[in-house]
Amino acid sequence: MVEFRIDRRSGVATYLQIVQQTQQALRLGLLEPGDKLPTAREVVEATAINPNTVLKAYRELEREGLVEARRGLGTFVRKSLGSAPTDSPLRGELSQWAARARASGLERDDVAALFSAVLEEQFTQSEHTEHAENAENTEQSKQHVTEGDPA
User: What does pTM read for this prediction?
Assistant: First the structure.
């Protein structure tokens, strides 16, 4: 079962922290379809937040189609996200990198900023490459059709 950790200094709304942590657990395979989320009361007892905040987060997750509320039974996971299992070799490499970054004196926020920048760079770069390849393939397909047409 997932345990929510609320960071009151993060500047991120509490209900969004619950949504984001649930999404992350789904991406990592820590939550799977059929799993039950903690009840609002359990979350309130563990985190000392308002029950309406928990309910708001669960409604948002339900709106996204990730969970479903079953009256009298609780809230259950409907589908998973992504495919990054916690036992992935990439996780180990990333953990080692984070340990080196910390040992070199970087603070948590510095590491997060660095990782986010590289992530943005890598995925923006690959998206541009994919778009260019798709455009080139489309153009080549058009040429083949045009060349093959007896006019």
Answer: 0.65
